[in-house]
Design a protein that fits this description.
382 residues, elongated, two-stranded antiparallel sheet, 22 helices, mainly alpha
């Protein structure tokens, strides 16, 4: 049975081509090429060839050189040092006299300035000969995803670019992205406005890198709809940001882990707990009552900067009484604690309310049976 549909047979890109590592030039072949380029008056190609032989740089590093990388003032330097794109390590190389001479002629002939690329494109108006499909751009990544890897639907590359690239399991593509990950995050992921559906593993991978600007991390996290299940794989330096951006699931465990973290910030947790969506989600579950969770309960009872409505909801969820009245709370918060009967009735707590006769009355009225049974507490007027 013959093929059906719109099947298009494509010829393999490497058919009939020599691919992979090539045998290095022999010395006589190098000189033969130089002579041919000199005889043809091809100054640019001769300069590019000579500098490639001297520096032994990768192609994309060679074409990325600028005039200032090889010159001091208006003279070509004897040696140069650049940062390699692949390894992110500096490499130094010497420039032979023959290469210096032809570079000097080329820079003068092309009227290049210090900030110009040393080998501008011959075919386009762009100032740089570039790296073609190897360059990290949205168009190139989508081309590889669709034309080379054979995926028809390009939408995943817009909604969850990094997650989609990881899901291809294409080693060459993944390595290319990771080699210039800072540039990839800044110029691709953050430039795709609809990129908001990265999965948790992709988000954690990005958070785990220590070479990314915090502002870029914040911009990235602020767009994502997925929330992290916990803080376990998140660097402590980013814990506060995670809560600032509401990028974590609302659970008592996550709040307690944040409190115990070296990256803890009280104001960030209070702002997080004040969010209606967080309150709605977290209060569906009982507040933990075991001794290991005491820090969380203590934090909540002392969180005087919570809104009155949020404070009342959290106080109402407290699983047990507190023996001592917290200090520094506004009267409205103290009234909530008393009316919800979350403070043990004692002479010490009664005296702590001495500044407000109304609160003392409320404290007694709420605990009238205990008051009548406790002779140590002074009588108060009706």
């Amino acid at each position: 049975m013959g093929p059906t549909g719109n099947f298009i047979q494509r010829e393999p890109w490497n058919k009939g081509k020599l691919v992979g590592q090539k045998v290095p030039f022999k010395l006589k072949e190098i000189w033969a090429l130089r002579v041919r380029l000199q005889m043809g008056g091809r100054v640019r190609e001769l300069a590019l060839f000579n500098l490639g032989i001297d520096s032994k740089l990768r192609g994309y590093d060679l074409v990325a050189l600028k005039v200032r990388d090889v010159c001091h003032g208006d003279q070509v330097a004897t040696r140069a040092i650049i940062m390699q794109q692949k390894t992110r390590r500096p490499v130094q190389f010497e420039i032979t006299q023959a290469t210096k001479d032809v570079l000097q002629v080329w820079i003068k002939q092309a009227r290049l300035k210090s900030e110009d690329f040393l080998f501008p494109s011959r075919l386009h108006e762009s100032p740089h000969s570039g790296t073609g499909r190897y360059e990290l751009t949205i168009a190139n990544l989508e081309y590889v995803y669709k034309e080379i890897l054979g995926h028809r639907d390009i939408e995943p590359m817009r909604l969850r670019n990094f997650t989609t690239i990881r899901s291809t399991n294409d080693v060459a593509l993944i390595n290319r992205v990771e080699r210039d990950f800072n540039s990839y995050l800044k110029n691709i992921i953050l430039s795709i406005q609809e990129n908001s559906e990265e999965d948790v593993s992709a988000i954690l991978y990005i958070l785990g890198r220590d070479d990314i600007d915090q502002s870029d991390i914040e911009a990235f996290l602020g767009r994502q709809t997925a929330r992290l299940p916990g803080l376990e794989d998140v660097p402590e330096r980013l814990h506060a940001i995670i809560f600032q951006l509401n990028a974590i699931e609302a659970t008592w465990t996550n709040c307690l882990d944040f409190i115990k973290s070296s990256g803890f910030n009280k104001d960030d947790l209070i702002a997080y707990l004040d969010l209606p969506s967080v309150r709605s989600a977290i209060l569906r579950h009982p507040m933990p009552s075991e001794p290991e969770s005491f820090e969380l309960r203590e934090f909540l009872i002392k969180a005087g900067s919570l809104s009155d409505a949020a404070y009342e909801e959290y106080v109402n969820a407290l699983p047990s009484l507190f023996e001592s009245l917290p200090t520094g709370l506004e009267p409205v918060k103290l009234r909530i604690l008393i009316s919800k009967e979350k403070i043990a009735f004692s002479n010490e707590n009664f005296e702590a309310l001495a500044a407000s006769k109304d609160l003392q009355v409320l404290f007694v009225a709420t605990n009238i049976k205990k008051y009548l049974a406790n002779p140590d507490i002074p009588a108060i007027d009706d």
